[in-house]
Amino acid sequence: MDHAHADHAVRLPLRLAAEPYAKEISDGAVALGLHCSGTQDVELAMLVDDHGIIAFCSSRLICRRELLSSIVGDSLDRNQIDSSSRWQSETLWLLVRSSTASNTLTWHHFEGQSDTAVPTKIAPRASSMTPAHDAFCARLITDSIRTYYAQQILEPSVRGFLSVLEKQFARGDLYLFELLQNAVDDGAD
Description:
The chain is α+β, with helices and mostly antiparallel strands. Helix content is 38%, strand content 17%. It is built from 6 helices and 6 strands. A 6-stranded mixed sheet has the order 1-2-3-4-5-6, sandwiched between helices. A hairpin with a 2-residue loop joins strand 2 (44-49) and strand 3.
């Protein structure tokens, strides 16, 4: 599929460049940035949906070992992470940025226990992907969201908006209740 913004002059962060590819797989899929230690020369993201992590994205082609080391890190006990062991032995999907100046990404996959990613001509279907969803995946997803919003809150425009928002409610906790009510009104359960 040809992505409308794939070749803009502005190089998007990997998370944003991967978003249309996530939508190809599933309407509910989104791209989230991964902030991993020890990965200064590679930008990582993950594609997730309601069922868990369905694929990873990288700013350059990397081997499975480097990808997993970046995600899991050295400080964690790898034996306690089910998804990590599964990602070492099963097909693992990887979306790779085509060039350093491009927003175009290409699909690759690691077959079986292979450490080398093989290019894939067509985009995978959601039915061919087995999402990983366990406590470690949940932590990766929530850490990604928390890191993203921790950075966003530092933006001057956001800080200005929040100060205006604070003045609209007599008490700070009322805003939280309003958010929850809006979610319930929109069908959250």
